[in-house]
Structure formats: structure tokens, C-alpha cells
Amino acid sequence: MGRRKAVYTMKLEDIDKSCVPAHVAIIMDGNGRWAQKQKMQRIMGHRSAMTAVRQAVEAAVATGVKYLTLYTFSTENWNRPQDEIDGLMELLIKAVNDETKTLMDNNVRLQTIGDIGRIPERSRKTLQGCIETTAGNTAMTLVLALSYSARWETAEALRTIVR
Ligand code: IPE
Ligand code: MG
Fold first, then answer.
1. Are 145 and 67 spatial neighbours (Cβ–Cβ below 8 Å)?
2. Nearest CA to ligand 1 atom 6
3. Residue 130 C-alpha to ligand 2 middle, in angstroms?
């Protein structure tokens, strides 16, 4: 229940900016279980998670984090019921459309990692549009890991080394 409530144990002004990590990564989990506990459909848990995402992004910008990576959708998640996958891909479009202005206002640049080629075209194009719109922003980079896997990350690291 309390999971969705913002529990700030520290005031932003009390955080020593010199101790803030440059890169923070968050693995999103528990949306479905949270929704089921509230007797709601799983997709409602994913929708509700947007509030937590917004708070995480705002807190990261405010404390001076340079990279915030959100592990959003793994390659294993492609095995979920098609309805849930469709709902998540639609939510991605809605979230990007709703939040692009906030990203601009906060000088946040969007990027993605993962096997983006597997993301349905409409969702991918929406993401691409936001990536282009926010490309010049410099306060923080928000990285969405989509269709991510350890295998993809290892292969990408090797490709980078080879380059
Ligand atoms: C995280 O929540 C979001 C995604 C993986 C898309 P889950 O969907 O993993 O929620 P649980 O773990 O089933 O409760
Ligand atoms: Mg899970």
C-alpha cells in the first residue's frame, strides 16, 4: 500500500551534492503484484507506476544525477500475455507524449538501450521523436532500457570496445 506513497526521508536541500552518484539505475518491478493487491488489473499497476517514475526523474535532476537508467521492459517480458504487452507499448507512447514537455523544462535528454528493433513501430517512432526533441538537453540523461537483457548489454559493450 505504502509503496506508491512518496516517502521522502531526506529533504533535497540536505543532500550533499558531492556524494550523489553520477549514474543511478532502477529496475522497475512489482507493478502487477501491487495492482492485484488493490484488486485492479495489472495494467493499472503499470499506469500507476508513472507517478513513481516521475518522482524518481525529478529527484534525480534535483540532486544532480547525470544518468538515470530505468530498466523498464526486459526481453523476458515479451513472454507475457499479448494484452499486457500491448498495454505496456501503448503506455510507452502515452508516457513519452505526456512527459516530453517536462523533460524539456528540466533540460533532460532521453535515450534508450536494448534491442529497440523489437519495439513496435508506433512506440519506437514516438520514442525516436522524443530522443530527437530532447537531444540538446544537458542537465541529465534519462535512459530507458527496453527489450533489455544481459546478453544485449554484453554484446553492446563488445561492439563499443571493437569500435
Ligand atoms: C515491472 O512490474 C514492470 C515491467 C516489468 C514491465 P512487473 O510487471 O514485473 O510486476 P510484477 O513483478 O509482476 O508484480
Ligand atoms: Mg516483476
1. no
2. 73
3. 27
